[in-house]
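ERR on first pass: missing label on line 2. Operator R.T. fixed the label and resubmitted. Corrected input:
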Amino acid sequence: MNELIEDSILIKVRDVHFSRGSKLIFDGVDMDIQRGKVTAIMGPSGTGKTTLLKIIGGQLRPSQGSVEVDGSNIHAIRHKELYQLRKKMGMLFQSGALLTDITVFDNVAFPLREHTNLPESMIRSLVLMKLQAVGLRGAFNLMPSELSGGMARRVALARAISLDPMMIMYDEPFTGQDPISMGVLVQLIRLLNDALSLTSIVVSHDVRETCAIADFVYLVSDGKVVGSGTPEELAESDSEWAQQFLLGMPDGPVPFHYSAKPYVQDLIEH
Amino acid sequence: MLNYFQRLGASTLSVLERLGRASIFFANILLSIPSVLIRPRLLFSQMYSVGVLSFSLIVISGLFVGMVLALQGFYTLSDFGAEGMLGVMVAASLVRELGPVVAALLFAGRAGSALTAEIGLMKATEQLSGMEMMAVDPVARIVAPRFLAGLISMPILATIFSAVGIMGGYFIGVGLLGIDEGGYWSQMQAKIDFNIDIINGLIKSVVFGWVVTWIAVFEGHDAIPTSDGVSRATTRTVVHSAFAILALDFILTALMFGDI
Ligand SMILES: Nc1ncnc2c1ncn2[C@@H]1O[C@H](COP(=O)(O)OP(=O)(O)OP(=O)(O)O)[C@@H](O)[C@H]1O
Ligand SMILES: [Mg+2]
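pass 2 clean. output:
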């Protein structure tokens, strides 16, 4: 990766350590997110993928190490600059995180109304375009409580692109999607990335779908990056981590169980 | 024994730590108030849900409290042949004490708990996080307008409470118990002092409005983001508000009326 010029890297994650209470979640993570590419971050449930996105977004602060986004250290800049930078960072939350007291239309319009002085007619056109892109223009009038989980996530995607950001972080965009909308979403992520020259980070468990659109993949487990490369490189690598995760095998270096004392001991203790 | 002191120390520390966080939070709210004032639409819609929706509760309660005051006061005053003072007694009790205190207690139960639950649920469903990532500061967009709305609504509600209570006293005293109508009003006008009674009552209601709304928005923003966490936070808002109102009422009363 050394041959790439520095500038082509949008996000540099360097030696990031992070703990929740006494539980160490990251133990020195390094990543480079290339500009204009789709980078996937995969790993077992509970390894801290959501946490990593929140660290990149400046919502959580690592205990050690740094994250540089577009040339600025996100945890060292001032509050104002952080907010300026966030206007250029879209994020799709795992839960959608739609505002529940306003309609789908108003949710997508929310960032536009907060950050621009566009006339209402222009906002309307923009919002309808974004909703059209995710196939939910007809749902503009619904309240978030009237959406299914998958629909809510697509509305959240429309909202995340409403300010035309330079990058989008997708947290589990595929969960809860039926095969058709899943296929559409997969294509959409790739399409948006290329058409708007975005940079995308996709966090997902869906190995096949994600590998189909990712330019580069990081495998995270146990607080560390345990594998990285293009999907092809990973598929061919003989790393046990990569093989177990990509093929979905229950046994291997990634334990299925949350760390615990021995099962038998736990059962006989009482 | 050592254990006891240890626990006492730990809980004192955690209370102090919470107070510290609440104070920083309050400072952040103050810093965001200018941004609310340039967008008053947010403030108005919050004044509707915080203030206007408490209106009927305040009116009905005020009416009953005034009527009870008149009934109780009449039997005591008539022992001394002082029924003519009924208007003064009702008005003074309401304006100085019951108006601000009871309205604030009701306000904490009606609006404070709703504020905590709303903000807590927004946190639990990641709406606040989502807003942060859209570069919208939740303290400025969500918390500050609600805080300001509470601060403004409370004195108005307390004033309405007292006014309606005085009317309730009038219905009972003049209408039911037959005391002199002119006396009810004129004694009240003569004896209730604008500075001592009305201004001090208003100051109380402003202080109560501040403390209740502060507790409510802080508890919501600080809630553990689960349904259990939000329900505990809501309970804490009501309980802590009640304590704060009664304790502050004692302090303010001692300061305002202690030497009269
Ligand atoms: N608010 C919190 N307080 C304490 N621990 C937390 C909190 N949020 C997450 N954790 C812990 O941090 C770890 C990482 O959580 P995170 O949500 O980042 O996982 P994830 O990789 O996104 O998982 P999934 O794929 O299931 O979404 C988990 O083990 C969880 O127990
Ligand atoms: Mg997650």
